[in-house]
Automatic annotation (TrEMBL):
Active site: H9, E80
Residues of the full protein shown: 245 to 437 of 457
Source organism: Caenorhabditis brenneri
Name the UniProt record assigns to this protein: 6-phosphofructo-2-kinase domain-containing protein
Domain of life: Eukaryota
Similarity comment: family membership: In the C-terminal section; belongs to the phosphoglycerate mutase family.
Binding positions (substrate): R8, H9, G10, Q11, S12, E13, Y14, N15, R58
Amino acid sequence: PRSIFLTRHGQSEYNAMGRLGGDSPLTEEGQKYASALGEFFEEEQVPNLRVWCSQKVRAAQTASHLKPEMQTEYWKALDELDAGICEGLTYDDIQQRYPKQADDRATDKYHYRYPSGESYEDVVCRLEPVIMELERQANVLVVSHQAVLRCVLAYFYDRPLSELPFIDIPLHSLVKLTPRAYHCDSTIYAFDL
Ligand code: G3H
């Protein structure tokens, strides 16, 4: 059976500061995860593994320790949900500067669209070609972001859209999905760095 591996990028400088989005590089912890991920796939020897990575610096750095023979493709469609005017802010900043936005988001997180940015619904839409391609491919590793991976997981786990924005995907963990006829098996590897 073939497998789909999903991971967020390693911890970024913005993650460490509690800031949303942006395009910051990995912290030292994040770098450790990137090298641990490289070692994991070195040992695992997954045949013909393809790597699909977002176009953000933190994702590319996370994929950088994988062997060069694993061809890496950089998909803009795998970039993190665009928080628009809230990019670079913390959740406290948003609460203070845009309380109405924070309320609207709390009311309907799936449909809420950040001004000049995206909603989860928008991300589901732009992921459609990626998911169709994932269905056709053999072994793939996706290196992306929490909001995007929530959308991918909700699809493979067949979870309702209302629950999708709340699926927890911790940093420095790797999800292995093995699609079966009517469900998907999954294994989570938590890395101890
Ligand atoms: O890591 C942050 C997520 O990408 C977005 O989180 O949609 O729960 O605010 P949120």
